[in-house]
Design goal:
Low-confidence stretches: 4-8, 13-23
Largest sheet: 8 strands, antiparallel, barrel
Structural class: mainly beta
Strand content: 35-45%
CATH class of the largest domain: Mainly Beta
Length: 221
């Protein structure tokens, strides 16, 4: 009888400890909602955790802003965020969509964006062993004409698009490059861990700052 009493008491205490531990970690549904963060002047962000376990994160730094979407999971007090888009370090950032070989003493280069429109004023130049030989800016149709030189690389640079660094082929008389936009206004999340405590979200990338009122996200709805 005494042994049975001890076993029953042990199980009761164990159940109480498990219950208390579980109560410290609210269910996933409890974090659903919109949260706001306001940092130093001109810096702020909002994250909307939706019931279907997707999220929308918007941020602003001065006149620069962006939106990220993805999925979220809750494990205890931790919130795991994974964005729909992920950085690709192997991506070239451009596509050589057309070439042509005709007798010519110059190289005609056309620079276009994803829809095929010419990129006016995109800069294009030839180099040899890192030294710039000749360059020009594209016209309103995205066309650049360069003299054929003893170069080893052709380069292109334009605003928010990813730079091009492509091997130079002197046998070509025409090239068309399709340029890709840089994801400068996209905040990537790769299984990033935030914390949920007392109705607040804590982003580990937010550091203490004497001019910032808080370093956590507050629920707004």
């Amino acid at each position: 009888m005494q042994s049975l009493f001890k076993t029953t008491s042990f199980l009761s205490v164990l159940w109480l400890l498990v219950s208390c531990t579980a109560s410290k970690s609210p269910p996933a549904e409890s974090v659903v909602g919109e949260y706001n963060y306001t940092g130093i002047y001109g810096v702020g962000s909002t994250i909307n955790l939706k019931a279907n376990h997707t999220f929308e994160f918007t941020w602003q730094t001065g006149l620069i802003f962006g939106t990220t979407t993805g999925i979220w999971k809750k494990k205890g007090s931790r919130l795991l965020l994974h964005s729909d888009l992920q950085p690709d370090p192997t991506a070239k950032g451009y596509e050589l969509v057309r070439t042509q070989k005709l007798p010519s003493d110059s190289l005609l280069v056309r620079l276009v964006e994803s829809e095929g429109y010419g990129l006016w004023l995109a800069n294009c130049w030839l180099t040899k062993e890192g030294e710039v030989l000749e360059g020009a800016a594209a016209d309103e149709n995205g066309m650049v004409r360069l003299p054929k030189l003893e170069a080893d690389s052709i380069h292109v640079s334009y605003l928010e698009y990813r730079d091009i660094n492509h091997p130079y082929d002197p046998s070509l008389s025409f090239m068309t490059f399709k340029m890709e936009e840089e994801k400068a206004c996209y905040e990537f999340f790769t299984n990033e861990i935030w914390r949920f405590r007392k109705g607040r979200l804590y982003d580990p990338s937010i550091k203490r700052h004497r001019y910032a009122k808080k370093r956590y996200y507050e629920r707004s709805n």
